[in-house]
Amino acid sequence: MNVHDSERLAGLMEDAGYVRAADDNADIVVFNTCAVRENADNRLYGNLGRLRPAKDANPGMQIAVGGCLAQKDRGEIVKRAPWVDVVFGTHNIGSLPVLLERARHNAEAQVEILESLETFPSALPARRDSAHSAWVSISVGCNNTCTFCIVPSLRGKEKDRRPGEILAEVEALVAEGVLEVTLLGQNVNSYGVEFGQRTAFSELLRACGKIEGLERVRFTSPHPKDFTDDVIAAMAETPNVCPQLHMPLQSGSDQVLKSMRRSYRADRYLSIVDKVRTALPHAAITTDIIVGFPGETEQDFQGTLDVVAASRFTSAYTFQYSKRPGTPAATMDDQLPKQVVQERYERLIALQEQISWDLNREQEGRVVEVVVSEGEGRKDTATRRLSGRARDGRLVHFNPAGVVDQEIRPGDVVTTQVTYGAPHNLIADGELLSHRRTRAGDNWAAGRKPKTSGVTLGLPSFGAPATPEPAAVGGCGSR
Ligand code: SF4
After folding, report:
1. What is the pTM of this model?
2. What's the CA gap between 151 and 87, in Å, rounded?
3. Is 451 part of a structural domain of the chain?
4. Which of 81, 197, 331, 466 has the greatest number of CB atoms lying within 10 Å of its CB?
5. How many Å lie between the centroid of ligand 1 and the Cα of residue 479?
6. How far is the CA of 152 from the centre of ligand 1 (A)?
7. Atom of ligand 1 nearest to the CA of 145
8. 9 and 90, same structural domain?
9. Same domain, residue pair 165 and 195
10. What sequence ranges are listed for the domain TRAM (predicted)?
């Protein structure tokens, strides 16, 4: 969500006439902060401190801070770092160009934080990072109250976009060569709650299935509490919906789930996994797990290990619980000692790593379709492989020899056979079985990235293809 907001910020800035800096000497630096990660504030103030000499040397330079941490800390940011020019929150990212202008004109810092959403972020222009794959927000905010999570207090209640607007944005992206979209919401399964349509998400998946040229549809994140069978049926019956599910478990203990205020229980979670496996036997199921939540006993933790063993996740994002100020869990009794959490965490990792590896070994011999990506294979130069994602989301490193139409570009599609299932990825060292050049690959080769001009009132508008631009050096963007 945060990365996609950064694309909106980049689009807004371009529309306001700013040009992406080609090196570190930017006149404006925008931090889009996230409060979910640990130590987000230390990292922000560290980064701001490092920028201070550049700002002192160039008084015309402007620094803006937005996102969740800005929403949380508000005026505190300019108190702790008075060389910051603009602070804006999660509800008014569209105000950034105006606030920069006002700060320049008035020669004083501008802090503007709103309590509710001013404009749905998708109504703002976006400069996309990838030529072949795009994020599309279907909702923002969350109506749940998980006790470890700061999101509801910073992003507000769930706001759903109308299906027509979402589909118009997807069509606009496909018209610009995008092959794959990921539908984004804090809880995609409650999509439609605002306009009273319980089956809205499954209908949206099916509608995406009718969009000509859209090859892959993914979504994140579902919530086990609201996951309904019509979504599983839509996943199975819509050919361009990928056989992949990232469904946060958080804990396998009913007692811990209760104290996390996550209103499903382990047996419900497992029953969804069973149904998905029945409907989509090759689906890759991944998850998020928190170890060491306050009050977690050894028996509770064993419950998590049991659900992990039964679910056979392809991979899992595992986290050691740590307090987030402002959340109910931060003040709960029974915070666990670090060494207990660490020891459990290591046991969980060992179990999950073994499952991941076993499942990847089972992929050996399978033919996979891979959309070629950029920057996902750190060792590609040494191994002379290229990398990309299979339909189920697995990372595949492949030998780019065999059936090749001219050259292979990011965004092109190849098929190849898996020769080795490594612990965290698949290797395909045989010759390619096919290579399809795509418009996304053409756009990548020409240095063009999709730009959507914002979608309002169901009417799509299309951004002109960008001219080739030099490689960007970060400015905004943090997960
Ligand atoms: S479902 Fe829970 S963890 Fe996810 S955003 Fe909402 S409150 Fe946070």
Report:
1. 0.89
2. 19
3. no
4. 81
5. 16
6. 7
7. 7
8. yes
9. yes
10. 361-432
**Nearest alpha-carbon partner for 91 in 33, 156, 29, 151:** 156
Answer yes or no: is 336 within a domain: yes
Across 361-382, average pLDDT: 94
Query: Does 474 map to a domain?
Result: no
- Ligand 1: lining residues by beta carbon, under 6 Å: 142, 144-146, 149, 151-152, 186-187, 223
Instruction: Flag whether pLDDT at 10 surpasses 90.
Output: yes
Indicate the annotated binding residues for [4Fe-4S] cluster.
142, 146, 149
Residue 411 structural domain: 367-445
| 256: CB partners within 8 A, 6+ apart | 250, 293, 295, 296, 300, 303, 304
Distance in angstroms (rounded) separating the CA atoms of residues 217 and 285: 15
Do 170 and 245 fall within a single domain? Answer: yes
Number of domains in the chain: 3
Q: Which atom of ligand 1 is nearest to the CA of 262?
A: 2
pLDDT of 17 > 80? The answer is yes
For residues 347 and 207, membership in a common domain is answered with: yes
Tell me, what CATH number does 411's domain have? 2.40.50
Compute the distance from residue 327 Cα to the ligand 1 centre, in Å. Answer: 12
Question: Ligand 1 centroid to 258 CA: how many Å?
Answer: 14
Residues 243 and 277: their CA atoms lie apart, in Å, by 10
- pLDDT band of residue 115 (cuts 50, 70, 90) is confident
Whether the upstream peptide bond of residue 221 has omega within 30° of 0, thus cis, is yes
Domain contains 457? no
Task: Point out the domain boundary residue: 305, 330, 362.
Answer: 362
Largest alpha-carbon pair distance within the chain? 65
CA dist., res. 38 & res. 267, Å (int): 30
